[in-house]
Amino acid sequence: MPHATPAPEPRSRPRVGLFVTCLADAIRPRLGFAALSLLEAAGCDVEVPRAQTCCGQPAFNSGDTQGGAALARRTIAAFEGCDHVVVPSGSCAGMIRAHYREALADDPAWLPRAEALAAKTHELLSFLADYRGWRPQGVALAASATYHDSCSGLRELGILDQPRALLREVDGLELRPLTGNDVCCGFGGTFCVKYPAISDAIVKEKAVLIEASGAQLLLGGDLGCLMNMAGALHRRGSAVRAFHAAEVLAGMGNGPAIGEEE
Fold this sequence. Notes:
Blueprint: E1 15-18, H1 22-26, H2 29-41, E2 45-47, H3 57-61, H4 65-79, E3 84-87, H5 90-103, H6 111-119, E4 121-123, H7 124-131, E5 140-147, H8 151-156, H9 161-167, E6 171-176, H10 191-194, H11 196-212, E7 217-220, H12 223-235, E8 241-244, H13 245-249
Parallel strand pairs: 1-2, 1-3, 3-4, 5-6, 5-7, 7-8
């Protein structure tokens, strides 16, 4: 009698696809390395598919539905073999989770694949806190910091407590409240290009509130927002330095800040 083939053993380490994002790839590669380091520390096997490009949000939000849909298909094909897709950006994660089904609503072949990918896509900080139960160990940074909650992460994905819970575990880091932490910084992706005067007025108000917090560092979970606020702070001659929260959690908080030469 032939032996039955044994069932495969369950994977103890999830296979995670890291979606690096356009901005991290082009402007802040250290964010990609920080995300990779954190996911590995949280017990994940990490892959970075070479076929990934843009999530498609700029095209989709600008009315180029076909262009956004084409990029959505590319992303789905690159990542659908992973157990999870993790993104160090609430904005890009929100695009995949909430808007791929809109972009592909009229494509019966791709819509189920878009919905399947959306169900396993996570923003980095919420994935670490909620899905892996991870907390930083042996990470220290003697500084005061305040935190800005980006619109997409907060409103589309419900990310609020997770970043703060992780950052409170960093030895020596003092978190200070930011008045208007949930108010838009004025970046809004293509909004800052279409309406520069309004965007500039919004970020100027944000910069004043950041300085009023008395914090040395500005932290957040979206590189686009952080770049916008860092630019406003720099134009004011402010000493406040901006970092993605993942960089601090990965022990990179003593390196060059956003906008500084690396």
